[in-house]
Amino acid sequence: MLEFDGSFQEPFDLLGIDDPECPKSDIRAAFRKVARVEHPDVSAFDDAEERFRRISLAYELLIDDGGRAMLLEAIEKKADDLEELEVKKNAVDEVNENWDETWVEDEFTAVSRTVFLIFMAGGIGSVIWWFGFDHE
Prior knowledge:
By secondary structure, the protein is an all-alpha fold. The chain has 2 domains: about 90 residues, Helix Hairpins (Orthogonal Bundle), CATH 1.10.287; about 30 residues. The protein is elongated and about 90 Å long. The N and C termini lie far apart (about 70 Å). The model has no long low-confidence stretch (mean pLDDT about 85). It comes from Effrenium voratum. This is J domain-containing protein. GO terms for molecular function: unfolded protein binding. Keywords: Coiled coil, Membrane, Transmembrane, Transmembrane helix.
């Protein structure tokens, strides 16, 4: 991932992938297509080995669900580097942080939940007893 630090769109561009949400089969097909042209054995470029190494890294990163998710998050947050990705927040992060402050369980809520669970367990137990046994 550090290889593409700051240019999170580059792995998609190296493989010629337009849709970042494409299935893995499309990523494999794109890699095969690019590898046929860029492989050092067939490429005429002087830096063919370096180019193919970067293409291989891009493929490994995109085929991994976690790596692709990190790239998509960096693109969504418009992060300039990985450190900024850790610090920069999106709307979902802010809502998740505010959730802990919003949802505070007081004594009344805890007692109400306990009473509800006792009545629920008793009701379910009664239904099981009623339908589960013969009452002649």
